[in-house]
Amino acid sequence: MLAFRARYIFPIDSPPIRDGLVAIDHDRIIAVGSASSPAQSDFVPAARDLGEVAILPGLVNPHTHLEFSDLSQPLGAPGIAFPDWIRLVVANRRARSTSRDLDPIARGLAESTQCGVTAIGEIASTPWHRLVCLPLEVTQFCEFISLRTDDERYQTVVRAVTSGADGPVLWTDQLRPALIPHAPYSVRPELIFQAAQVSSRRQIPLALHLAESREELTLLRDGTGPLVNLMKDFGQWDPAAIPRDSKPMDYLQMLTEADRALIIHGNYLTGAEIDFLASHGHHMSVVYCPRTHAYFGHDPYPLAKMLAAGVNVAIGTDSRASSPDLSPLNEIRFAAAKHPSVRPPSLAWMITAGAASALGRNHEIGTITAGKFADLSIIALPPTGAADPYELLLDPACQTVATIFHGRFVHGAQKLLSAGELTPDF
Ligand SMILES: [Zn+2]
Q1: Is the pLDDT of residue 151 over 60?
Q2: Is the pTM of this model over 0.85?
Q3: Does the N-terminal or the C-terminal CB of the chain have fewer CB atoms within 10 Å?
């Protein structure tokens, strides 16, 4: 058993606890509360006082593409047209397949734990797995692109996702299968619908990049525009694949079939589409990527509108190809400045409980609750600070100092513990 005492504990599903205590046993949380409460008195003598820190649930980043984690800066320049950026992404991926001297996945996993992240929704253009223990939980969305009638890639991905121990990826509780047809401009609608049916049968999440750019809306409506030229240049365009006058709502309706659907970006969803998502909130969520949204200079993001409608919005970092780092805290700090009407507790929810819910994992992770996994992020606080503790989380000076995944330190143990305490249990 381990117990930690901190200036604040943010359970997320209840108000922050000043002078809080959280106790863990092996990989589970067994108690959380005020250190002065009689209910916690058994744990206080054994508790390690971490001082001026906040303990949050391990952060959940519902949208990453770790294959780009070795990029020191985004591809292109701010304001780049989305189709031009896709060309850079594809060129970058092709260049990597011939010179692979770095392991961007490993770098992305390490950066994530340094940022307090204990679960990710990872988009894998090629399914990957690690034989060694993962330092966090990965829901791996296996991606496919298929606009023409050649469905080989789709079949391969569905086989990988639904396979057992004899398949190409050994799925475990920490490496969980999921599906992502890439986007409406790169996958035939009937395959997206079929993928939603697989999601339902296998009870796995399904994601789709949707309503991401104006160019996508033009392609769906008219079958023209820069994304059509892009698909033609890649030899992928089929003019009969997508009915004219299609719109994101057509895809939202297909996704209701899925066990759980994540709408990635949703930058250009209409009011009716937002209301539709809200009415399916028990299994449909939106993932907003604030710095990526800003990088492309899109229209203002309808975050307040989505929240007012009751949509479950999660916040993700997207990849280093369009964002400077993999820190969910940095994303909500950026979002706070863009959306002053959205309160800090909502922003904190979107990188913890809301993101866990989007991935269908809220019964195990996303809040500090007895019985859930002992996944915690520990953040340094200034000696004095705002009256509202949530405001402290938005202070850029407050950085992650340690991360605990399933009861073990995966980052920062040496910053918090003395040499004598650094036992193998940590
Ligand atoms: Zn993405």
Answers
A1: yes
A2: yes
A3: N
